[in-house]
Structure formats: structure tokens, C-alpha cells
Amino acid sequence: RRGALVTISLGVDPGVEGYLCVVDSQRQETPRFWSMPVHDGERAGEGDDLDSKAVLVLLQEIGPSIDIFVMEAQQGFPGIGPRCVACHKPKVMQGVASTFKTGRNFGVIEGIALALHLPLVVVKPQEWKPVWGLTSDKAMSVAKATFLAPKVDFRPFERKPKSRVPDHNKCEAYILAKHGLRLLKGSEVTK
What is the 3-state secondary structure (H, E, C) of 18-77? Predict the structure, then answer.
């Protein structure tokens, strides 16, 4: 199948705008990406819904070759946040429907991974981001990914063919895949 020294990691940013990224330890600057499968919206209520069947097929295809599957844990932010300093109106953090959808999508992917006996590791953002010098600032994820793999095109050309800027979801899927290699190797992060 492959040399004993080659390790393959799958990193997943599980949101509907997320990505799946496969990185192997020998060719870390040539990752493979898949945008998260979603329904095309032709039927009512399917606009931004995860396509569970397509996720299953994709993970069945990718699964046998991977040594670790790293997925970011999801958390909802329902309710009202702090007031805006400028206008004093409360900020809406995340609606109830959106919070439910986030949890559902995560659960579907986790369930499929477990059913397929994939080597799943769920990591909280507070666990993996500091290892890479990241915070919740998405621009930092873009900067880190483009630093780690300057030749990789992180633009979301699958969804937005005319986009000129890297997609933070794609960048985070790449860093999650790199984090999987780090977890398997048990060493400090290196370029």
C-alpha cells in the first residue's frame, strides 16, 4: 500500500463551509482537499444542509488510507452576547437553528467515522490552536497555513471560482491534518 514511514492524516473542519484535507507525512505541501458535501438546495430546507450520504461515500473512499482522522469539536454560541460599544445594541451570537445545525453536522460526521471504524480524534479549538500559535482569529489560520505550505492554493475555488483570497476553513482543515501528523509522531510542531 505505502512505505512504512509514510503516515496519512485527515483533518476536518466540519461546518457546512468546511473542508476535508488529507496530508501525508512525505508530501505535506501537496494536500488533497474536498469541500464539505452539502445539498444543492433544490428541495425546500436543504440550502445549507450537510449531505450525509455524500459524506458517507467520501469517508468510505478516503478512510482506508488514513492513519488518523482529526476533527475539530463544535460548539454553539446561542443567545445574546455583549452590547456593541458603538450602538449599544446587543449582539446576536448564534441563533437556535444555527446552533442545532452545527451540532447535527458534527454528530453526523462523527457517527459516520465511528461506524466506519476510522481512527477519529476530536480536538477542541482550545487544544489544537495554541499548539500552532493560533487563536480564534481566522486571519491567523490563513497566515499559518500559507506559511506552512506556500505553494498550496487555499482559495475556495470549488465554491467561489473567482475568489482571490484564501479560505480560512480550508486553511484550518489543512492545519488539523498537520496536527494529526504531529499527534501520531508525538513531537513538537515543525515546518
Answer: CEEEEEECCCCCCCEEEECCECCCCCCCCCCCECHHHHHHHHHHHHHHCCEEEEECCCCC
Say yes or no to pLDDT of 77 above 90: no
Under DSSP, the state recorded for 6 is -
Q: Which residues contact 87 (CB under 8 A, 6 or more apart)?
A: none
Percent of the chain at pLDDT exceeding 70: 77
* Calpha distance 179→18 (Å, rounded): 17
**What is the arithmetic mean of pLDDT over 101-123?**
91
When pLDDT is cut at 50, 70 and 90, the band that residue 35 belongs to is very high
